[in-house]
Input
Amino acid sequence: MAEIANPSVSIQNVSLNYGAVSVLQTLNLDIADGEFIVLLGPSGCGKSTLLNCIAGLLDISKGRIFIKGKNVTWEEPKDRGIGMVFQSYALYPQMTVEKNLSFGLRVAGLPKDEIAKRIARAAEILQIEPLLQRKPSALSGGQRQRVAIGRALVRDVDVFLFDEPLSNLDAKLRSELRVEIKLLHRRLQNTMIYVTHDQIEAMTLADRIAVMKGGVIQQLDAPQTIYNRPVNRFVAGFLGSPAMNFIEGQLQAGDVGAFTTDGVSIPLDRYEFDKDRGSAGMPCVFGIRPEHVAFGDAAKAMPFTAESAVEIVEPMGSDTLVWTKLGGRNFSFRVEAEKTLRTGDPIRIGFDPARASLFDTQSGNRL
Output
């Protein structure tokens, strides 16, 4: 992505240390006006910590944070022009929905007519008008989260921060609210920064994803780019359900070059291979996603094919995950739900190495 001229949020060389423990390590991130950025990673990777630094809930050790061109590094949260939605709903149980939405505005001393206008707008956008006189105890989990989003919405700010807002909801509600958040962003066109460990949320919501590990952004790019061309083995393994197949082996020299392991040789002539970063005999890891593997007659047309046998069949509803062996390692591929395969059935599998990923065993980086 080209350099962002006037970023809505700019994180410059930000570090956060707790004594000798480094939680965030010299992070740099520019977020365009109106962009939806998702901070994705496992527990403890620093994603919520970074969000809390942007919000002003944590003081950074080094670096600067700008919001709409203003240095807010040491500003109070209320002065940063942000609205935040937390993982817990954090609603006042004794107040009605309307009072919950208006509380911050009343404390700020806004006129009553302005408060009423903002509440009406937020209630309309989030479709919670019939709930305004209820208390949180009379609401479902999804309704409570809508109110929590509405409380941020009434602040009329430029930047919204979401800290795993859907993690307390069941799968059906998560799916429904995910769509609503995407529609909300499309309607408002505000900058949104969203923290999650759920790759489906990240892939479906984000304009760009920042994949984090150990307080470092491993890769920052569009969802499909990260999915198809992960920069390292960690990113490749974190995104994708079911996970990418990984096979350990080594590079083999030649006009074409190949990846070899336990009697299997995969040609790399169709793989965009950086020959300056790999050499003959170099240990590496070959990765291919289960949905990029064909079987049966479709496999015969692929540049690489192999004979194998079905080990395990896992029906998943919309499709079926089948496990076999390749190069002595467990290997999975997806087939249509209508296909009938049984344990022990002989099969032919195949794939195009151009759709694969190749990683240096030592560094984990893409070759």
